[in-house]
Amino acid sequence: MSKKNSEENEKGLPKAALAVIILVVVAAVVFIVMGQREKFEPVVAGTAAPEFELPGLDGKQHKLSEYRGKVVFLNFWATWCKPCAEEIPSMQKLHEDLKAFPFEIVAVSVDKDGPEVIEPFLKQYGVTFPVLHDRKGRIKELYKTTGVPETFIIDQNGVIAEKVWGPRDWAEPSSTKVIMELVQYGPKDKEAYKSTR
Amino acid sequence: MPENVKEAPSGAWYRTVGSKIWYFFNSLKLTLFVLIALAVVSIFGTVVEQNAPVEQYVTQYGEEWTKFILSTRLNDMYHAWWFLLFLAALALNIIVCTFERFPPKWKSLLDHKPDKFDSGLIDKFSHRETVTLNASSDAVKDRLLNAFKKKKYGVVSMGTKGDYYFYAWKGRIGRLGSDVTHISLLLILAGAIVGSYAGYKDFFAVNVGGTVSVPQAEFKLRLDKFWIDYYDSGQIKQYNSVLTVVEDGKDVMEKQIWVNEPLFYKGIRFYQSSYGQSWNRVQEAQISMKLKGKEALEPPVALKWGELTALPGGKYSVKLVGYTADFAYDEGTNQVFSKSAEASNPAIKVEVYEGGKEVSSPWLFVRYPGIFPAIPNSDVDLVFTGYIPVMYSGISVNKDPGTNIVWLGTGVMGLGFIFAFFVYHRRIWVHVRETGKSTEVKIGGTINKNNFVLEKELKDLTESLASD
Amino acid sequence: MILSLVFFTFSFVFYILTTALYLGYWVFKKKWLGQTATAMAFVALVSTSMILISRAGESGHAPFSNLWESMMLFVWATNAGYLIMEYKHKFRTIGIIVMALESIAMLSALLLPYRFKSVEPLNPALQNKWHWMTDLLSTWGLEKYAIGWLDFHVFTTFIGYAGFAISFGLSILYLVKEKSETKTQRNSLVESFPPAKTLDELSYRAIAWGFPFLAVGIVSGAVWANYAWGTYWSWDPKETWSLITWFIYAAYLHARVTRGWRGKRAAYISIAGFAAVIFLYWGVSFVLPGLHAYAS
Question: How far apart, in whole angstroms, are the C-alpha atoms of residue C251 and residue C265?
Fold first, then answer.
């Protein structure tokens, strides 16, 4: 009990000093955190597509910025995801139809297994568009995805024009309206994309 | 609490055995054992999936283990006799302990006031205070009684001027918390037993317009409407049904139900639990005529369920009278039925009329067009090309007469908890003694739990004595 | 900007700072460190409250609909419970273990995949509002703030978990202190904790809050289940584990009044109980469905 008494005799800090310390600490934390505010932005239509670097199946690294100037169809998928497999044929058709245009499909697989699982899968579906592989799945945190498949239509300036949750039949004209508009008329102001949400 | 084993009169062996059994259940160590055993044993039923089809156990655990699981009823362990035995042991434990401990406790709570005071008593308490005040014993007495009154204690005073004794008490009901809680557990158990014997659960898939015959009841339920609400993102928000209770041929009550919002009528509850695509009805089917000699089909004609529709050409009219999602034919009973709920082999039955007379009633298959000619001796064949499905509403029915007993039990349990955890039985003794010009006050007491509260009370009381 | 995630980042830092301050106070025993620690704990509580409030605004429903959101509720309740205990009894050295638990909890929430942190609309099974409350609030146009059995069930259960978490920390301290009290050589760090008897009493007080709240949580869950699906108890893993946890803490309460079972054995039961809480909260969601997945 003597420890308690010695503490009672200790004066400690006056309330004002305590308040100052707390305010300084809180202000510092707020300042530092707010300096990184992009991390808290949702990744949706009207925001910039985060840059990343991932290996293709040949092992060569590719960055998203490589495709700047083209309309990018960024698709997240996995071999174990049935709806992803269902939309791949229509994606391949879209890739072939728009071959002559500044349009690129970049399909990122989040399979934990290696290329030996992905390659046969792609062969089976006759896929010729670029496929990148994020084995650790970190792209999911970067793009804040909540499942697969998810597709981001990115304009020529690297701004997300449309975000699609789940699969789509990309052969349907209504599905590719945004893509076609971008290819034909070029990028819009990013505010304009917010209405597609 | 010492455990007494009473000896029965000699010669009555059943009384010895009986009392040994009785006192076996009068044990807190048994309570600990049963509670921990129940906790451990219940884990098995969460690891081994309950009420799964046998094939699943075989796939997961192999044949040998599956035999073990089934023979010990591990697949439905919470209704197995050995699990119920643990619950019975707990119930007996509660009953016997309450019988043994409640009466003396009740007696001592009613008969709690001391008839005389022992001046040395207060010194024996571990929670006590002594203060000396510059006031007369009468003034102190008044302050003390005031303080006790404010704190809502009951008080008895004794003694003579200059040498007062006080005994104060509060919160006796706190000691009954455990008994009230235990009774509530018995109520809950009783309610569960009543429910499992006198209640039932059922499920019906109803099409719009269809009726449910409610088991063990004198009324029917008719589904008037079913629809699904969606969020903007396309995810399902809610599915709803409008049900009408039909009793003695009359519409008695109408209610819209959705998931979480049931219909309650005469002790039976009806829940919106699921929905699906109907396997024996469609809203509309499309058929096309195929003319002899022509490769292509004619443009499709829509047939609404049960409606007679004239076909182009003026010769035939068709009525849609049947649908089955997965066509199968039982040769024994000559019946058509749906093998599954999946639309694997959709077929419609139509009645074809020529000039008002029925000439055929064929089944048409969307996957096998033209397999059998639809109209005998005709240049026209009919092909089933598409349909608009009808959704059925999945209604769960539940009757459980024990439910109200269980809720009564939980209410009593809440009361028991309040008494047990938040009401403290305090007993405080005070000796006020005038010693010359000043008065010495000795105060001390007991509390059945949470000693900090008693310490604080004693401090509060001594402080209030120092001033007015 | 997703405000709730901003406040989450603030709170995470605040909890780390609070833990460091309580650690400093425990080691160096300076009063100003203790005062700052308590003040920081308050800041963390306010920040955590802001997570819940902003999330409720973002999602349009009560902020406990998934694992991440409910972790925030757990952290909030444990923080509030601890501050109340510190205010009433003035034992600041206990802060280190409670705040260490809070930091671990925040770290676990941080490591969850994004899909747990995102704002999602409720599926049909989770929508329930009390009629009397929607009617009452509609007089001011505030019906959307009405809650129902589900929110009540989650909220009360988490008050229970918070009590059990605090008791878990105190039981560990009890075992450490009790062992040290049997020795003649006393470690000065362990000495600064309250006496073993006090730790035992405080641990009991925490369970005296946790246990009835868990019971209310289980019962309200049963009421909701009965209302939504027609049956108040179906022995599914989540329900069964909540009952297992309840049995263990009931055993704790009876152990405290049984000769030979007070003190150390009661502390072990309290620790086992919290292990059950963790399994009930996290294990059932992640481990048990895995078993079903092997089957299909």
Answer: 11
Among C90, C116, C142, the domain boundary falls at C116
Residue with tokens 């009207």: A46
The token pair at C256 is 């405290």
The residue type found at B200 is Y
pLDDT in tens, C233-258: 989 899 999 999 999 999 999 998 88
Residues B398, B386 share a domain = no
Q: Select from B32, B43, B228, B273 the residue whose CB has the most chain C CBs within 10 Å, as the one to mutate to test that interface.
A: B32
Cα three-residue angle B436-B440-B442, rounded to 5 degrees? 155
Pair B406, B267 in one domain: yes
Domain span at A94: 53-196
Residue carrying the six token digits 């081994």: B48
pLDDT (tens digit per residue) in B278-313:
888 888 999 998 888 888 888 889 999 989 998 888
Backbone angles phi, psi at C109, to 5 degrees: -65, -40
Residues of C in contact with A11 (CB under 8 A): 31
Tell me: the pLDDT tens digits for A106-127?
999 999 888 888 999 999 999 9
- Determine the structural domain holding residue B63 and report its residue range: 13-100
Residue C36 and residue A22: Cβ atoms within 8 Å?
Answer: yes
| C16 and C145 fall within a common domain | no
Q: Does a structural domain hold residue A45?
A: no
For B389-410, the pLDDT digits (tens) are 888 888 888 888 899 999 999 9
Tell me what ipTM this predicted complex has.
0.90
What chains are in contact with A, requiring at least 3 Cβ pairs below 8 Å?
A: C
Question: Which residues are within 8 A (CB) of C86 and not within 5 positions of it... i.e. 6 or more apart?
Answer: C38, C41, C92, C94, C95
Q: Are residues A65 and A142 in the same domain?
A: yes
- Considering the entire predicted model, what is its pTM? 0.82
Residues belonging to chain C with any Cβ–Cβ distance to chain A shorter than 8 Å = 1-3, 5-6, 9-10, 13-14, 17, 29-32, 34-36, 39-40, 43, 113-115, 118, 120, 191-192
Residue for token pair 């000691």: B175
Q: Which amino acid is at B215?
A: P
Q: With CB atoms and an 8 Å threshold, state whether A13 touches C35.
A: yes
The reply to whether A44 falls in a domain is no
